[in-house]
């Protein structure tokens, strides 16, 4: 790691907008955690980098989705956030919903993030999870199934965006017979 300004330049050259200490170590090719912490704390104190949460650092134009998925990892954006974007639900909300290994609700400035816990074998299965740059997000089908798995039968405004063959295949990763029945029931209801 070179001079103070070089470290900052390397951060701003990165496509990432949110960082932790291990991520900064990779960017700076540094191995001394104390030096990394000292350098990033200097950037925070001088207002060049934000620290929205302890151990998390961000550029001033950070991506809220990237922040949400870097606080608890592994995690991916899912549920209402994905379903709203896909047009499956219409209710407006600015809250970001994330699947992770913990259930938590965080407020960071104006940003609200809801984490929902799911079994590790489901969380770590990347089927229908897409890398969209610096974070992961569920496909609409995966978000639909995550919702049914975690909440049971609920109302969806528009099921047209969903691919039912994908939903049926994907339902097997949850290893839950009731979920398979629910998917079939929603598919039948959608066709009528």
Essential attributes:
9 strands, alpha+beta, 18% strand, 2 domains, Arc Repressor Mutant, subunit A, 4-stranded mixed sheet, Transcriptional regulator, AbiEi antitoxin, Type IV TA system
Would you spell out the secondary-structure blueprint of this structure?
Layout: H1 4-13, E1 18-19, H2 21-28, H3 33-45, E2 50-53, E3 56-58, H4 64-71, E4 76-77, H5 79-86, E5 96-100, E6 104-108, E7 111-117, H6 120-123, E8 129-131, E9 136-138, H7 140-151, H8 164-171, H9 177-191
Parallel strand pairs: 5-7
Antiparallel strand pairs: 1-3, 2-3, 4-5, 6-7, 8-9
Give the helix/strand class: alpha+beta
* Main sheet strand line-up: 4-5-7-6
Distance between the termini: 63 Å
Query: What letter string, H or E per element, gives the SSE order?
Result: HEHHEEHEHEEEHEEHHH
Protein name: Transcriptional regulator, AbiEi antitoxin, Type IV TA system
Organism: Candidatus Amesbacteria bacterium GW2011_GWA2_42_12
Characterization of the model:
This is Transcriptional regulator, AbiEi antitoxin, Type IV TA system. This protein is of the alpha+beta class and 192 residues long. The protein has two domains: 3-58, Arc Repressor Mutant, subunit A (Orthogonal Bundle); 69-190, no CATH class. Helices cover 45% and strands 18% of the residues. The chain contains nine helices and nine strands. A four-stranded mixed sheet has the order 4-5-7-6, sandwiched between helices. Strands 1-3-2 form a three-stranded antiparallel sheet, with helices on both faces. A two-stranded antiparallel sheet has the order 8-9. The chain is elongated. The mean pLDDT is 95.
